[in-house]
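Q: Hi! First time doing this. I have a protein sequence and I read that you can turn it into a structure. Is that right? Here it is:
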Amino acid sequence: QVQSTLNKRLEIEGLLRTMYDPRSKLNLDVSQQLFQHFGEKVYQTVIPRNVRLAEAPSHGLPVLLYDKNSQGASAYLILAQELLRK
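A: Yes, that's right. Below is the predicted 3D structure, encoded as C-alpha cells:
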C-alpha cells in the first residue's frame, strides 16, 4: 500500500528474524516459509530472544552500550557485517 501510494520504487531490502528461538517449532516453520517466499531477501543473521536486549531500552541505552558482550549485541554486530557484505 505504501509503495502504491507514496513511493513506487520502494523495495524491501531484507527481512530480519528477531526474538528468534531455534527450539521453537513455530520459529522454525516461519523461517522456512520466509525463505520459501522471499528467498535471498531473508538475512542469514537472526536476533535471539535475549534478556539484555529487553533491558537496554529501560536504561535508555542501545544494547551495544548496555552490554556489548551479550548475545543480542553480538547478533546485531553480525547483522551489520552481513549488511556490509551485501
